[in-house]
Amino acid sequence: METVLENLSRFAEVLAVAHSPWAADWDDAEVSRAFQWARYLEQLSRRLEGAGCAGARAAVRQRLQEQRRLRPRAPPELPRYRALLFEELGRGGELLCGALLRNPAASAPAFHRAAAWYRSAGSDGGSAALSASLGRAVRVKAATRLLRRAWGSEPAGAVVSATGGQILRERLEERLRAAGGELPERQAAACEELLRRAFPGGGEEEGGGGEAFQPLAALLLADEVEGGEARARALDWLLGDGRVLAALGRALPCSQLAALSARSPPFARRYLRLLQRWGRALRYDAARTEWAPPSAEGPGWRRLLEHFAALWRGPPPAREAAESALRGLKAEDGDFEVLGVSVWTDLLLALTR
Fold first, then answer.
1. What is the 3-state secondary structure (H, E, C) of the chain?
2. pLDDT digit string (tens) for the chain, length 353 residues
3. Residue 210 and residue 202: Cα distance in Å, rounded?
4. Which residue, 249, 275, 250, 269, is CA-closest to 320?
């Protein structure tokens, strides 16, 4: 079992390199070794699906789930490194080719080998859907890069945001259709994988910032008919990953977060808990007469006030939830009316003057 897990970790490293600038250094021999690892993954999957392997299959699935829960830290030179999903074991070639075809730094041998595999998959009638899916993935990646470059101008920003949300919805719907009648947990895993790739590191890929999250925000702000099941899946994923939610809270304009809170009570509850955690981390600096975060990277007083002010100015559900939370927290701190004693008192005073 340990050897199998070590080999799976090795392929995860190969996959991370295929996404990175280091793929530019791959020659024919290194490309062949990478595809050998992909074939190993596929052979392992076939063996685990065989009769009498239910115990081994369950053990591998459990260990991979444990690895994912531990969230191994990606090395700085390989930011796309992550633990594999059990459902990915039979898709080694697809994962590797998808990474290389999306990577503009990939060497010529790597690109041509991936393209050859791509054509081979497409020539098989049963794999035509796979070939078409990979083709769409490459086109969407290119379109996304162009859209991000156009982000800086208004009203182009609104168009980019809406287009990005539509692309994200279509990709999620494609994953759900591909999962078909599979178990709900497999459908959820397929959507989670796509979202994690779209927003790796909490939106830190390719410069990060609020624009990286705009497609997700656009999808979440769509109405239930327009967003469909894709919107619900994206919301479930966001609420289940505190790291991404915190990154979203730092990156998006406060007005958008207030709008999301008004649209979705579950989001409002998690968002307010996030703001409470940020507020509790602040400490009053008597020398400067202001509330300060424990580190320069943490959200400060002004940013926290901006968040609550946007909720205060937002639709009634958002304002009512924010006011109720602040008054309850102020009461827990002793219900003082003096500045500098409770961050919640200071927030309420700033909002109601």
1. CHHHHHHHHHHHHHHHHHHCHHHHHCCHHHHHHHHHHHHHHHHHHHHHCCCCCHHHHHHHHHHHHHHHHHCCCCCCCCCCCCCCCHHHHHHHHHHHHHHHHHCCCCCHHHHHHHHHHHHHHHHCHHHHHHHHHHHHHHHHHHHHHHHHHHHHCCCHHHHHHHHHHHHHHHHHHHHHHHHCCCCHHHHHHHHHHHHHHHCCCCCCHHHCCHHHHHHHHHHHHCCHHHHHHHHHHHHHHHHHCHHHHHHHHHHCCHHHHHHHHHHCHHHHHHHHHHHHHHHHHCEEECCCCEEECCCCCCCCHHHHHHHHHHHHHCCHHHHHHHHHHHHHHHHHCCCCCCCCCCHHHHHHHHHHC
2. 788 888 888 888 899 899 887 888 899 999 999 999 999 988 888 888 876 777 888 888 888 888 777 666 666 667 778 888 888 888 888 889 888 887 777 888 888 888 888 667 655 544 454 555 555 555 555 555 555 554 444 444 565 677 778 878 887 887 777 766 566 777 777 788 778 777 755 444 433 456 778 888 889 998 776 778 889 899 999 998 888 899 899 989 999 999 999 989 999 999 999 999 999 999 988 888 889 988 877 789 999 999 999 999 988 888 999 999 999 999 998 988 888 889 999 999 999 87
3. 11
4. 269
Please give the span between the terminal C-alpha atoms of the chain, in angstroms, as a whole number. Answer: 64
241: left (phi over 0), alpha (psi -120 to 50) or beta: beta
Residue 227: count other Cβ atoms within 10 Å of its Cβ. 20
Residue type for position 233: R
Tokens in use for 24?
A: 């530019």
Cα(154)–Cα(145) distance, integer angstroms: 17
> Could you tell me the two tokens for 38?
């992909």
The Cα 10–Cα 8 span in angstroms is 5
Instruction: Retrieve residue 136's tokens.
Output: 């769409």
